[in-house]
Amino acid sequence: MFSRKSPLFIFLLSWVVCSISAGDIQRYLYLSIPDGAQKRDPVEPGIYVFDIDDEHKFVKFIPMPSFSRGLRGFCPSLANHSAYYTDTKGLIGCFDLEADKIVWERYHDYGWDRACITDDGSKIYAPFGWWHRAADGGFAIINPENGDILDNVITGGSPHNSLITQDGKYMLVGGWSWLNMYDVETDEVIWRFTAIGDDGVFPFVVNSDSTLGYVCHRRHVGFDVVDLVKGNKLHTIGYGDEPPARRTHGVGLTPDESEVWISDQHENQLIVYDNTVMPPVFKQEIPLSRGGHGWITFSIDRRFAWCHTPDVIDPKTKEVVATLMTEDGTPIASSKFFEAHFKDGKLIRVGNQFGLGMKTRGPLKLKDLN
Predict the structure, then answer these.
(1) N or C: which end of the chain has fewer CB within 10 A?
(2) Burial class of 7 by CB neighbour count within 10 A (0 to 12, 13 to 18, 19+)
(3) C-alpha pair distances (Å), 72 with each of 9, 38, 61, 88, 139
(4) What is the rounded distance in angstroms from the CA atom of residue 146 to the CA atom of residue 144?
């Protein structure tokens, strides 16, 4: 018999309690197909759902005919237990994640790129798109209840990616060589960064306390580090002695913010940098099974990394540990996806479509799973 105070007994008891408690939670990856920005897999348009805790095996497919042109964004809202989706032809829609049904769909004159939603579910920010290069480019503020446009904000050409920071206080949107930061409560601009992104702002992420941003380069493999408190660029990081002359489309911070990962989709790889020093320094490459649009984010519990390929990666070992596949075993991929947790059929937690830092939140603990 084990002593109740022995380390082995305590470990076994903890393992049993964790297994029982975590078993009450269904943790899924929601993936939209087709992707409006990369080569399309030969499958029906819709939402593919994978079980994160069962080797990312296929769970179900939800047909979505309106996805046929390919999505530009797929954004979850815990407050509204819904996901919002956008495309280039002006479609914006709301899908109820608990009921598995479309709540509403609207078509507007603008096309929409990757949108984001406030933590309280009260406002959607939807950029007009990278293809909107005129000076009147900007984003709309949209009512999540029905898709009505509440206001338009002019920013400049090619607004395409937008995110809400981990603390819920700020919205950032990037365009052609600019990155704007807004106060979510007032929608007033705080900073306008220019001359960043190597002649074009591509995907970007923010650390958990909203003090640093990491911005992909357009013309070379690399990224900039920007100070979100003082409003200036701190460092320019290039891959190798002579950074390859191609865009970088995808950047993520590991949840503990110890590493920066960027996507080099042309060479079918992710590139890892040590972020415990400043400026970050190169660590290694991670080979991928294919190319694509480029994207990176991480699971809430820090165990997995997802990107624009079917590959599921262990952030610790940097090894591919699973492959996203349809029911018949066809590998599929998209750069529009998010994590969702359910308990008793109710949505209790969502991840982020961006690889935002989670350092200030700390590791996910047992009590957080219930």
Answers:
(1) N
(2) exposed
(3) 50, 10, 20, 7, 14
(4) 6
Do residues 262 and 221 make contact, with C-beta atoms less than 8 angstroms apart? yes
pTM of the complete model: 0.91
Q: Phi and psi (nearest 5°) for 138?
A: 175, -150
- The dihedrals phi and psi of 137, each to the nearest 5 degrees, come to -65, 155
Amino acid occupying residue 328: D
User: Are 128 and 113 a contacting pair, CB within 8 Å?
Assistant: yes
* Residues with Cβ within 8 Å of residue 80, at least 6 apart in sequence: 94, 117, 121, 144
**What's the Cα-to-Cα distance from 53 to each of 59, 90, 126, 172, rounded to whole Å?**
11, 36, 32, 32
Residue range 265-290: average pLDDT?
A: 97
Closest CA to 75 of 138, 139, 162, 167: 162
Looking at every residue in the chain, the average pLDDT score rounds to 91
CATH number at 29-369: 2.130.10.10
Could you tell me where the DSSP H helices lie in the chain? 7-23
Q: Which amino acid is residue 229, in one-letter code?
A: V
Domain boundaries, the chain: 29-369
CB 308 within 8 A of CB 251: no
Structure-block tokens of residue 156: 């400049």
Q: What is the pLDDT of residue 23?
A: 59
Q: List the beta strands (DSSP E) in 101-221.
A: 101-107, 116-117, 124-127, 138-142, 149-154, 161-164, 170-174, 178-183, 189-194, 204-206, 212-216
Q: Give the burial string for 200-229 (b: 16+ CB within 10 Å, else e).
A: bbbbbbbbbebebbbbbbbbbbbbbbbebe
Question: Tens digit of pLDDT for each residue in 101-159?
Answer: 999 999 999 899 999 999 999 999 999 999 998 889 999 999 999 999 999 999 999 99
